[in-house]
Structure formats: C-alpha cells, structure tokens
Amino acid sequence: MSRTTDVVPKEEAQQGKNQLRVGRLVKAHGLKGALKLELYTDNPERRFTQGAEFTLQVPEASPWHGKNVVVREYRVMNGNPVVFFDDVDDREAAETLVRAILWIDQDNDEVEDNAWFDHQLVGLDVVRDDVVVGRVMRVEHFPAQDLLIIKTGEQEIMVPFVEAIVPTVDVAAGRVIVTPPAGLFEELPDAARADSDDDASDESAADAPSD
Questions:
Q1: Is the overall model pTM greater than 0.70, yes or no?
Q2: What's the chain's Rg over C-alpha atoms?
Q3: Is the CB of residue 10 less than 8 Å from the CB of residue 19?
C-alpha cells in the first residue's frame, strides 16, 4: 500500500484542500462493470461510500480524460476490493477504466495511519544505524509503489517507500530511519571483486599471445 497521500495542492480547490490518491483500477471483474482496486488508503470503507466522486488520472487519449466517476457500490469479494461506478454497466465499459488512478479532495488536517503528504517528507534527514546518510529530495509515485529519492553525496538513490525499508518517519524530529538491503546505498564487496576479476581477465586476454 502506498505510504503517501498527495501531490501538489489544487489551485482551483478550496483553501485547505489537496488532491489525494486513493486507488488504482487494476482489472475488470465480472460482466456487470465491476473493477478490482489496488488501494492507496487505509480507510476504503470511508473513501468508497455510495456517491463518492473521484477525479481520474488517465492518458489524454482515454475517453475518460478530464472526467470524474461516482461510486455506485463498494464490496470485498474473495478478499479483493471491488468497486462499481455509475454509468459503467458492463465489462466492456469497465475495461476502458483499467489502470486509471483515483484522486479525491481531502482536508489537510485529516491524516491516515502510516501515511504522509509529499511536502512533509521532502527535506527530511535520512538516518541509517544512527548516522545521517542523506536527505529526501522528492517523492516519485508509481503504480506499484512510491519511491523516496534520497541525495547522498553526489548520488540520488531510489528507495522503495515501504515499511520494511523505511520503518520510521518522524516528521517532528525531521528524519526518516532506513534499514536498506545490502547494496542499496553502497557497492557490494562481491560485486566490486567480480568487477576486478573481470578487469583482470580482460587484461590477461589482451596480453596473451595470438596465433
């Protein structure tokens, strides 16, 4: 599940509002217009109530570009969240919405568990084993997960923003704690040794007499 909840504030929205990303439509389900959801919210029952309206993020070529959808029904079927929308009555119509991302207006002061606004994360120190190793430069949003782009030295490192790798976000203290797998922030010794061995092999081959 995504651990961030916003992009930039909407200029045309009411003061104190942001557009929050709450889900992605992953595939059509059944024959009556249902779509399976990938949830980016910890409160789907509250977000996907009957009559809730979402802005769609779709390619410009999509027939849904610039349009909204309204929830007709939300269910959990065989452990999977499924949503029905007004005017999407069959599988063919549902297929046109696959991969669309759903956004909704949300009050800034409403916070979901284990989720933060992008602007809260940018600039935070990145701490590993009690040592500051970098700073969060920005957040990149992708369908599978969010990435923290961390500046360390002269490099920018893409860190999956998942609890296993970023277990602690302390906005008040100005830091995030990371527990990255080996090789994410540094070159693995074995990899460096393999590169050296390859270089040595290339040099030996170059020095070998030819027929």
A1: no
A2: 23
A3: yes
